[in-house]
Amino acid sequence: MYLPAHFTEDRLGLLHQAIRDSGLATLVTVTPQGPMASHVPMLFDPDVGPHGTLLGHIAKGNRQWRDLVAGMPALAIFRGPDFYVTPSWYKTKQETGKVVPTWNYVTVHANGPITFFTERDRLHDLVSRLTARFEAARPKPWAVTDAPADYIDGQIKAIVGFALTVERLEGKWKLSQNRLPEDRAGVVEGLRAEGRADMAALVTAAGEDTA
């Protein structure tokens, strides 16, 4: 990932939280046919491995797990908030006109070796933990045990689990840090006017970090 210094985020707490906040991640591996990607939810265990371990599963029929190029690391991409930035928000537009549109975003890339597994008990534990995570906020959370055991066993036979050991963790918070303070203020004002106060808060925080 291209990481200019003013967009680089390396605070582990923020990187870990961005991973947890991302519901769906993109898993990229290298195969003899070229790069392959799957879009899957993942669990993050920060206490296992150099920079944590990512856990998830893909369909057994997905050849991504069979066609790995030996020794090539995998990449997990986590997307955070993103938004279009119109030049109309910049004070510089009125002063010089020398402005162009851009896109602001938050993303985390996790790189490292990946292993796949098919053990029934390990997969059952994984899907139970994934379910518990995403059902936790619901008034009446659904659990894996709510379904018939033989049905769950059949579903588990159709998936393959993976563990990605994170050896390199990169974060990019592209939030107008390269703009003048008055232009950043215009972005904040524009976002608030469009009802995106949460995005405006991110730009404000990023500006404070670089001040």
What is the CA–CA distance across the termini? Answer: 25 Å
Tally the beta strands.
10
Number of structural units classed as domains: 1
Tell me what portion of residues adopts beta-strand conformation.
25-35%
Radius of gyration: 21 Å
Q: Please give the CATH architecture.
A: Roll
Structural class given helices, strands, pairing? Answer: alpha+beta
Helix segment tally: 6
Calculate the mean pLDDT score and round it: 93
Write down the CATH topology: Pnp Oxidase, Chain A
Show unreliable segments: none
CATH superfamily: Electron Transport, Fmn-binding Protein, Chain A
Question: Which characteristics define this entry?
Answer:
211 residues, elongated, single chain, Pnp Oxidase, Chain A, alpha+beta, 32% strand
Structure summary:
Helix content is 31%, strand content 32%. By secondary structure, it is of the alpha+beta class.
Describe the protein in words:
It contains six helices and ten strands; from the N terminus they run βαβββββαββααββαα. It has helices at residues 12-21, 91-95, 120-135, 149-156, 181-193, 197-210, and strands spanning 8-9, 25-31, 34-40, 43-45, 53-59, 74-85, 102-112, 114-117, 159-165, 168-174. The relative contact order is 0.20. Helices cover 31% and strands 32% of the residues. With 211 residues, the chain is an alpha+beta fold. It is elongated and about 65 Å long. A six-stranded antiparallel β-sheet has the order 1-10-7-6-2-3, covered by helices on one side. A four-stranded antiparallel β-sheet has the order 4-5-9-8. The chain has one domain (5-82, 102-177): Pnp Oxidase, Chain A.
